[in-house]
Specification:
This is Protein CMS1. It holds the Pfam family CMS1. It comes from Spathaspora passalidarum (strain NRRL Y-27907 / 11-Y1). This protein has 262 residues and is of the alpha/beta class. It folds into two domains: 53 residues; 149 residues, P-loop containing nucleotide triphosphate hydrolases (Rossmann fold), CATH 3.40.50. Helix 4 crosses helix 5 and helix 7 packs across helix 8. The protein is elongated, with a radius of gyration of 35 Å.
Length: 262
């Protein structure tokens, strides 16, 4: 004969099973909080990482801008050369050390202009040229040297080259504007007959004029290169962010040109 179980008993008593306070709290309150914490932790961590990344990127950009501006007043040609060469390394990550060495600029190709105390801007550009290169500018008509010697001011854009031209056209002999918006045959005629010794140009346009078979302008005639280094565009880029800058300037320094950062 089977013994009755507690569930089979009909003893007239009502059984009320209740959780203790601590058990109810654990079941209802504690468990959701644990789940919530597990879900929120990765999101918070990701937000912190994004914030840190943005702050680091902003700081690096600010430092890069300051470096670009300060390079124009750097005293050491060696420091300037290393700055330019570091740009070359970053733009050519797949080249060997030997291949890079052929692209690098030597400190002997760089000249410091730290002795010019004025701000490097358009208003002071003519004064800088007159102060350093007055002997290269024409005086009276018919009194120029038999050997032509040019100063090339290279800028990152045609618009900027136009600004440079306006800032220097009052120099003795004025200045020439060589940009892609001009017809090439017009520029070739200008460099053939001009009295001016100041060329306001972009690296690309200067390269085209020099390379043309009918060009009267020889690389050996460009004695001075003034790099429009202090100017930054809306993206905070400057002349060294233009790929063709390095090739054009290197081809000129191989012919004896000297580089000045303005």
């Amino acid at each position: 004969m089977a013994h009755p179980t507690a569930d089979d008993l009909d003893d007239g008593l009502e059984y009320d099973l209740q959780l203790s306070d601590s058990e109810e709290e654990t079941f209802v309150v504690e468990q959701p909080e644990v789940v919530k914490e597990e879900k929120e932790q990765p999101a918070n961590k990701k937000r912190k990482q994004n914030t840190k990344f943005k702050e680091t990127k902003k700081l690096k950009m600010e430092m890069d801008i300051e470096t670009k501006k300060n390079m124009s007043v750097e005293e050491s040609p060696e420091v300037i050369a290393e700055y330019i060469n570091s740009k070359i390394r970053r733009k050519n990550p797949n080249l060997s050390a030997l291949e890079l060495a052929d692209l690098y600029f030597a400190k002997s190709e760089i000249r410091s202009n730290v002795d010019f105390k004025e701000t490097r801007n358009l208003d002071n550009l003519s004064a800088f040229i007159t102060n350093r290169f007055k002997n290269m500018l024409p005086t009276k008509k018919g009194k120029e040297d038999s050997e032509r010697k040019f100063i090339a001011i290279v800028s990152m854009s045609a618009i900027r080259a136009c600004d440079i031209h306006r800032a220097t056209r009052e120099l003795s002999g004025s200045s020439l504007k060589l940009i892609n918006k001009n017809k090439l045959n017009v520029d070739l005629k200008l460099v053939k007959s001009t009295r001016s010794r100041v060329l306001c140009c972009t690296p690309g346009r200067l390269a085209k004029v020099l390379a043309h078979e009918d060009s009267e302008l020889q690389a050996s005639e460009v004695k001075i290169i003034i790099v429009d280094n202090s100017y930054l565009d809306s993206k905070k880029q400057n002349i060294w962010d233009i790929p063709e800058t390095f090739d054009v300037l290197k081809s000129l320094t191989k012919q004896g040109s000297k580089i000045y950062l303005y």
